Amino acid sequence: MADNTPTRYEQLADDMAQAIREGLLKSGDRLPSVRQTCQRRGVSPSTVFQAYGLLEARGIIEARARSGYYVRSQKRPSRALSEPAVPRSEATEVAVSALAFDLLETTRDPQVVPLGSAFPAPHLFPLDELARAGAREMRKLLPEQVTTALTVGDEGLRQALRRRYALQGVPLAPDELVIANGAMEALNLCLQAVTSPGDIVVVESPTFYAALQALERLHLRAVEVATDPSEGVVLEDLARLVGEHDVAACWFMPNLQNPLGALMPVARKRALVDLLAARSIPLIEDDVYGELYADVRRPPPAKAFDQTGNVLHCASFSKCLAPGYRVGWAAAGRHAAQVLRLKMMTSLSTSIPSQLAIAGYLAQGGYDRHLRQLREALSTEQRRVRRLIERHFPAGTRVTLPAGGYFLWLELPEAVNALELHHRALAIGVSTAPGVLFSADRRFVHHLRLNVGHPDDPRIDAAVRSLGQIAEAMTRDAKPARAHA
């Protein structure tokens, strides 16, 4: 297991980012020169260049030719999507599976540009190293381990996960972890553990369509809560909803919410946990994107503030290390025993070879280095595609400013029906994720989620330009109709 202690350049970058957040360095200020920083901090020029490079990759500072490094403007562009949607407060029966299945079908075709996909590009992951680690571990596997690891999971992997939780300030009880077939199984098991058919579950607005599919499968009803594009769930609205409804559970993504990319501030996470604990409402925390932050340090999960075992924290390696290996887990708090029983009654076990491969890879110490490279690649591509959207999409388009991850959420002009745009784009070989997928009542008619996790794909620029041209044409076509009306 790799040591997660920050390197000298990461610590220097963290200190400078904190100074910028606290206003000690303001927008447009010039950073100290490399020589000055070396003298003040007692570090090498290489350390300073690495720290400044990390801050530049995160979009916090910018280099100016023959001038040095400067604090970038943190002001939101005028076209940024910054206001939360206002959802209906009534409970809604969920029926989104058919549309979701259609979308997943389009992402399987390698000839289609995967702007609608849920995964980053495969070349971003250390698949060869994982394969070698898996082969080594399988050669060392004792016959009895094949059965002792059933249901509970491989002990080496469980220990590695507990250590990573501890580094985030989240000590886990030895029996709290349940290894699952990806985060989706973990989330579904947790949801099933704390609800009964007909119950009400509060979800974000917009929310990840797989959460809606899970509610649909278990015959649960959804109530959507307003979700700020930058800071996540609006707690005032949540407090009102849990007062109006008999809520069985909440399913939220406090870190890098899909599709918005919102990152809930630490104080709001603590308040969220306290609000739900006071009413004994379980919080199912989906944290699959937590490692893909664009800042210097990993944001803590809501689980870090749980004092009562009320938070069921779920994550996986699918989005940050090993897509296709289907290794996830739940740290299910006081509900762990019930989640484990449900695991035994459904899939019984998660693939032992997959668990061993990941445990072996973690033990060799390259995971955090891989994560740093992945975050930098995704952060750079996110900013690049955002500029393409601003250049090619029609006036009035607004787009989120995510705090990490690889999704952008667009609000298109009212004349643009995103589902129709999706079908037109498919006809030219480009997939998208239309907004109606992300709400129980299909309310995000003019919204679109785009996957920007495919750096080095030469088709992306033309695909984004084509999407913008289709949206522009739809806007033009609607103008005569409105004038005639």
From TrEMBL:
Protein's UniProt keywords contain Thylakoid: no
InterPro entries named among the record's database cross-references: Aminotransferase_I/II_large, HTH_trans_reg/aminotransferase, PyrdxlP-dep_Trfase, PyrdxlP-dep_Trfase_major, PyrdxlP-dep_Trfase_small, Tscrpt_reg_HTH_GntR, WH-like_DNA-bd_sf, WH_DNA-bd_sf
HTH gntR-type domain segment(s): 6-74
KW DNA-binding (keyword) present: yes
Keywords: Aminotransferase, DNA-binding, Pyridoxal phosphate, Transcription, Transcription regulation, Transferase
Entries under SMART domains matching the protein: HTH_GNTR
Domain of life: Bacteria
Family recorded in the similarity comment: In the C-terminal section; belongs to the class-I pyridoxal-phosphate-dependent aminotransferase family.
UniProt-recorded name of the protein: PLP-dependent aminotransferase family protein
Organism: Variovorax ureilyticus
